[in-house]
Amino acid sequence: MEQIYELNLRDLWTIFIKRKWEIIIAFSTIFLAVFFHTSLQVPMYRTTVLIKVEPLRSMPSELIFPQAIRYWGEQDVPVSDYAKQLVSRPVIESAAEELGWINDSTGKTKKEQVISDISSKVTATEIERSSMIRLYAQFEDPQKATDIANKIADVFKKLNAEQKNQQAHNVSVFIDQTLNDVSAKLKEQEERLNALTTQGAVGLAVGMVQRIGDLENKLADLLGRYTENHPNVISTKEEIGALKAELKNIPKEEFEYGILKRDIAINETLYSSLKKQLQEALIKEAEKIDNIIIVNPAITPREPFYPNKPRNYLVGILLGIILAVTTALMSEH
User: Is the pTM of this model over 0.85?
Assistant: First the structure.
C-alpha cells in the first residue's frame, strides 16, 4: 500500500526556493497582463449631484384661501418620476445648448450624436426612503463630467419651476377671461332690465319664474329616483304646467323681466366666485413655485472612477500568487 506523505512548511519553502524562477515567471505573467490591460483602459471620471425634491405641502396662498384647490402642476409627484424627468431628452438637450456643445447651426446627425452620447453617460437614481435623487455623470474628461452634471441639475430646476408656474399663469388668464365675459353679460342684462322697467315692467313674473325653476330642479331629482307614473312626479309636472299656463297671461315684458332677474342673480353669484378665484390664482402665480433643491453640486473628480487601478493591481497580485504557487506545486509533483 502506497504511503501518503503530507507536506509541511519546511517542504513548501524548499519547493518554492527550488522552483523560484517558475514562480517568478508565473507571477510576472499574470501581474503584467493585468497591469497592461489596466493601462490600456480609457480613464473615466464620475461625479454626482445630490438633489432634493421638496413635497408641496402648505403654500402661502392656502393660508389665505384654506379651501383653494391645487392645480395639477402643484400636486405631489413621486420622486421616481422626477428622476426620469431629470435625464429626459428635453433637459439634456437644453443643458447641451447652454454649455455650447450644440447650437442652431449644429447638424441634425451631429446633434443626435451629442445628445445620445450624453444620455448614455448620465443616470439618475432615487435614494430609497427619502426624497433625494442622485445624478451621476461619467465622462473621459473630469471637467466635462462636472459641467454637464451641474448644468443638467440647473436646467431641470428651472424647467420644473417654469412648468408649475406656467400652469398657475394659464389658470389666472382663463379665469380673467371668463370674468370679463360674465361681466359683459351682466352689464347687457342690467341694461335690458332697466329698459323693461322704463316700459313699466314691475316684476310680476319674478316669483313665478323662480318657482318654475325650483320645481324643474325638483322634477329632475324625482325622475332620478322614481318613474314617470309616481304620484310626486305627476303632481310636480302638473304644478309646473299650471304655472307656465299662468305665465302666458302675463305680458311678455313681465315674463322677460322675471327671466332677467333670475339670470342676473345667477351671474352675480358666478361673478363673485370668479373674483375670489382670480385673487387665488394671482397669488399662486406670484408664489413662484420651486420645490427642487440642489443639495450638493458636482465637484471635479481628481481620480478616475474607471479603471480602478488599486483594485485591479491587488487582483493581479492575488491571481499571480495563486498561479505561481499552483505552478510550483504541479511542477514538483
Answer: no
